[in-house]
Amino acid sequence: MTFSVAAVCPDTGMVGSIITSSSICVASRCAFVKSKVGVALTQNITNPELGPRALALIQDNNYQTTQAALDQLIKEEKHIEWRQLGLISANGDSATFSGNESLGIYSVAKGINVIAMGNLLATDAVPQAMVDAFESSHGHLADRLLIALNAGLEVGGEMGPIQSAGLKVCADPQWPIIDLRVDWHDEPIAELKHLWHLYQPQMQAYITRAKDPANAESYGVPGDE
């Protein structure tokens, strides 16, 4: 019911995810991002508790690799056969898991600083198409994630119609500098791209207001709270 991408940008320090599904509000349950730590994706038959726990394990110095953190998460989750998980750390180290109760056609793919995965897919080529598109793209991490997700859609996406999508990116500061969601829409990826194009010109102003309000743009311009 879901396909997704998680990636990091070593040049900017950004970490981010993008996800879409036939289920409502998918980004609220399945994608977790933490600045300077990484990204955790938890999908298929979802347990949202696994996202924050995965990020805590990545951050824990006792686990030297993302695979070691994922192995611990697998040990802890008593219903692991129903889960599909993807982890990528801020340094690009990654690991994935698909339980034997994953739905329909399911697949994962890994590339340089990127992972992709999905379940109930139209074809198992979807994750690799997203990785290939990400690796061949350039520019802002959010733009690259949108390109990758759209590539998955173009090769078939999931078996049913997609209805929700979400994009989240963290860097510096700690809070997500991008946290956009389309919780129900007939064309959620297109609508998510539209939201990003509206938000991008205003993004830096909100960061400046948090870090240096004395030198922020004056209130009264579009986008002010």
Class of secondary structure makeup? alpha+beta
Largest sheet geometry: 6 strands, antiparallel
Name of the CATH class? Alpha Beta
Principal-axis shape equals: globular
Number of domains: 1
Could you list the spans in which at least 5 consecutive residues all have pLDDT below 50?
Answer: none
Compute the CA-based radius of gyration. Answer: 17 Å
Question: Based on the structure given, which CATH architecture is correct?
Answer: 4-Layer Sandwich
Question: The CATH topology is what?
Answer: Glutamine Phosphoribosylpyrophosphate, subunit 1, domain 1
Distance between the termini: 36 Å
Give the CATH superfamily. Answer: Aminohydrolase, N-terminal nucleophile (Ntn) domain
Approximately what portion of the residues adopt beta-strand conformation?
A: 25-35%
The H-and-E topology, N to C, reads as EEHEEHHEEEEHHEEH
How are the strands ordered across the major sheet? 7-8-1-2-9-10
* Average residue pLDDT: 95
Characterise this structure.
The termini are far apart. Strand 7 and strand 8 (about 115-120) form a beta hairpin. This protein has one domain: Aminohydrolase, N-terminal nucleophile (Ntn) domain (Glutamine Phosphoribosylpyrophosphate, subunit 1, domain 1), CATH 3.60.20.10. It has 6 helices and 10 strands. Helix 2 (about 50-60) crosses helix 3 (about 65-75), helix 4 (about 125-135) runs antiparallel to helix 5 and helix 5 runs antiparallel to helix 6 (about 190-210). The protein has helices at about 25-30, 50-60, 65-75, 125-135, 140-155, 190-210, and strands spanning about 1-10, 15-20, 30-35, 40-45, 85-90, 95-100, 105-110, 115-120, 165-170, 180. About 30% of the residues lie in helices and about 30% in strands. With about 220 residues, it is α+β, with helices and mostly antiparallel strands. The model has no long low-confidence stretch (mean pLDDT about 95).
